[in-house]
Amino acid sequence: MKKIGTKLFVVLTVALGGLVASQEPTTAHASTTFSSIPSGHFKVSKAGYAFRWQTFKSGSKKGKILVFGDFKNFAVRYGIPTKYKLSKSHRTLTTYYRLMNNNKLDKATYRMDVYKYSNSKYRVKLNHYKAGLFPSYKGSSYKVSLTKSSPAQSFATTYSKPALLKQVTASYMQQIQSQFDQGKTKIDPSDASVQQQIKDKAAGDVDKAVQGFVTAYNAY
User: Where is the signal peptide, in residue numbers (predicted)?
Assistant: First the structure.
């Protein structure tokens, strides 16, 4: 059980009262069927994506928060499950959820279906919404692995860091070039030593941003 920030705790407490207090599905256990909400990280390697259910507590009540990590697009979002539903075969878990935005719940409700092959293998669809990329009942289908350890660090290193480093380095280069062209600085961006300094600066800033991103995914 992890502790949560004060503002987020208030939002979750309110949500817990009417939405998620006791709606988790419970069925007879079988390796190919759902008996409860799986614990661990759902790792979608092909998409550079991960998500998980995280338990939180408010007084004597327990609830779930959803954590979504889109590592290719450098985005972490949180959601609150509002309803669960099991298929007749108990192999598909449908979860309805609302996203959190600035410590408030959005009005829109999303739906995701998770199909179970085994205790470690699942299938999920990812769909692009205006709010971003999220697990859904529609969109592109992916095979998913359920792991105990967080994939955040490895995914951030593989997917987030290279793209962000390229973007930040180009932005810094452009800023220096613009200032040089306007005569606001004598620093010549075509100089090899200057370029190296810019790359080092970008690398340092990106490392900090990536670690913040990893922390955001692992936080709750």
Answer: 1-30
DSSP letter assigned to residue 48: T
Domain extents for the chain? 6-147, 152-218
155-174 pLDDT, tens per residue? 999 999 999 999 999 999 99
Q: What is the CA radius of gyration of the chain?
A: 21
| Cα angle value 74/53/33 (rounded, 5°) | 125
Structure tokens at 149: 């350890």
DSSP-based helix, strand, coil % in the chain, nearest 5: 35, 40, 30
- Cα–Cα distance, 86 to 112 (Å, whole number): 12
Contact 4, 100 (CB under 8 A): no
Question: Would you state the structure tokens that stand for residue 98, as one six-digit string?
Answer: 């609302």
**DSSP-derived secondary structure letter, 152:** H
Residue 93 dihedral angles phi and psi, to the nearest 5°: -100, 120
Does the reported pTM lie above 0.70?
A: yes
Give the whole-angstrom CA distance, residue 133 versus residue 99: 12
According to DSSP, residue 197 is labeled H
Residue carrying structure tokens 């961006």: 189
Q: Residue 143 is encoded by which pair of tokens?
A: 């095979």
Q: How confident is the model at residue 102 (pLDDT cuts 50, 70, 90)?
A: confident
d(CA 116, CA 33): 6
